[in-house]
Amino acid sequence: MAERFDSVDEVVDRLRGADYLADASIAGVVFLADRLEKPVLVEGPAGVGKTELAKAIAEITGSRLIRLQCYEGLDESKALYEWNYKKQLLRIQADREHEGDWAEVESDIFSEPFLLTRPLLEAIRAEEPIVLLIDEVDRVEIETEALLLEVLSDFQVSIPELGTIIGKQRPIVILTSNNTRELSEALKRRCLFLHIDYPDIEREKDIVRVRVPEIDDALADQVAQVVRSIRALDLKKAPSISETIDWARTLLFLGRNEIDPAVIGETLHVLLKYQSDITKARKELGVDTGPTPTGVRR
Amino acid sequence: MQWAKLNDVMTRTNGPLISPPGDTLLDVLQGFVHELRAAGLPVSMTENLDAMRALEHVSIEDRQSFKSSLAATLVKHHQHAGAFDTVFDVYFSLIVPGIGGDGFGDDGTEAAESLESQIQGTGGSGGEGQVSAEELAEMLLSAMMSMDREQLRKIAAAAVARFAGMEPGRPVGGTYYLYRTLRQLDYDGLVAKMIARAQEVREPDEADDVDTLAERFQREEFEERLRVLRDLVESEIRRRLVADRGAEAMARTLRKPLPEDVDFMHASREEMLALQRAIYPLTRAMAARLAQRRKRRNRGHLDFRATVRHSLSYGGVPAEPKFRHPRPSRPEIMVVADISGSVASFARFTLQFVYAMAAQFSKVRSWVFIDGIDEVTRFFQESDEITEAVHRVNTEADVVWVDGHSDYGHAFEIFHQRHFAEITPKTSVILLGDARNNYHASESWVVEQLATRARHVYWLNPEPRGYWDSGDSIVSEYAKFCDGVFECRNLRQLERFVTDIVDG
Which of A36, A260, A298 comes nearest B50 by C-beta? Predict the structure, then answer.
């Protein structure tokens, strides 16, 4: 069932085919996740391609992506399963005239047709190949994390009325976290750990070229240089890869083939989202010219 | 299987092995895990087993995959990655040549020699068949310009052999050798030289064309290359040290504290920078967590309207009571910090931390003192950036009264005179310092007075508990009036304290 990939190099090649440039450690962990049948916990700053990784894996393995977006207040009935109580009520009322046997009704309303599957249960019952993405897992409360443990370690769910449902396959499971809080040891123990950071200048350039194919080499080079320069500053929020790509697109859209201070000054708000960051970057890069762009005020 | 392959690799090499050649991969891995634990990384039994399973799927000779497999299974905190790298390099550099270090293996010395002979072959002159220092500098410069890694590696090896002056058994840390070598290579002047070189290459008529931006990018690129050089020199030194002292001894000396455990009072410059970077993400994460906790913690009063409205779906039976969201009062914070020499960095971090968390409090005011005291709240209000405000605190605050030696008594007395009336039952006062009072009067009655009025009075002391009340430290004189006195030597302890006061 497993063994979707033959080697780490194959992972790199195939991900590249899906326009995702993986470095050695990303590919290595994906390869291991497949072989060891373990979930991967991906951590890193916002916008470095954590979610994209899951999408790319789904694409190259020809799987369906099932996504559970975590948020504060997520609970069992939204992550795992819920009994469709309206339908259950209807069933009971429909039965009233027939004076049916209660035991029969009971076993009936707690059966599969009355079960509403939520992403996790859906993933477990899936027949076709899937990739399960549990996005921003650090947003749920620490108590709710426990709900994921059974799924992550054994890929099964226990429903009191139905018994244990065991997954028919072992899909690749990706969890992402922005690290707003420390995840529990229990969760971490069950996962392989992958930290994705901002890429180095070469990889960033490659990413820009892959994602914005119309861009020419020299401009991609300059884009990567400016972004590295800005990331080195002490900012509230450093530009992410997606913002780099947006910026490259903006430059193309404006018809610029070359970067000069004026252009940077005009378009800095695509890269940086805090006014104080923009001011600082302008000062540091010496691009004080140009009108004040309308950035988002803090 | 892999185990057999490793054994094979190990017996094939005649290099110095720290473990007898009969060891299996299992033993090697256990030794490694043991080292990781000794370095303070938590490695559980499951993770240990995962690592073993992982090694069945990666080739031992593929250093990159080998390392990333171990990292993915054994290290689950990003902050621990640095410690893992060091332990890995040291531990595996001898057991499996070619795996540890930066791919150096045991050919470091050979590389150095080959470099020397290469120079001689091209007619290089120098005393006793050696490359002269100037020639080495020239080779380094051209290798840096063309970014020829292989060449750089050889130069790094040669430079360490030549300049570090390493002697077997000498009890000196790797940093000493590192600085010695880098000084001889003119590490600090290298970027300037590279820029000059780059300008020579450029056509004269182009010269005017270079704007400041391009210059900046060029300098950054060169600085990046410089870091590569530094890493190469460092790993060469480490390789030699391991060969000299054995991996286990080395691992012990290389063990560095994790960022959250770095002692404020004894942090090196680099550790300070690391702390600085760690502080903002930490406070943001904390703010998010506290906001969540506060929302969920004890429910407010019964919301009658909502309960009745909700009861309609149960046929008018109020089956599920609804509650109002509580609006917890936010404490008001007053920070009074000693910023004299030894505790200055501690005060700086705490101020930074408290202001980064300012949204959690209804009001934050701060004072700094040495023997005089000055309110610095205005700096934080005026500037957008906390770091800038802290800088202004250090340079502009008027804190010296007589001689610039800490005088807690006088500072507290003035504080009492000027601001006692402003303390309300909602105020928490946080006093920061080591209470080393240079044998002045303690004036501890001020703290007693504060305690009667304020909601809480806390004292944070950056010294280890064992040093309290030794010499001129008079913590306990103040402590008897405080609601709590805490040892606060690192970020971890500071974070715990702030969490507690936000909860009130």
Answer: A36
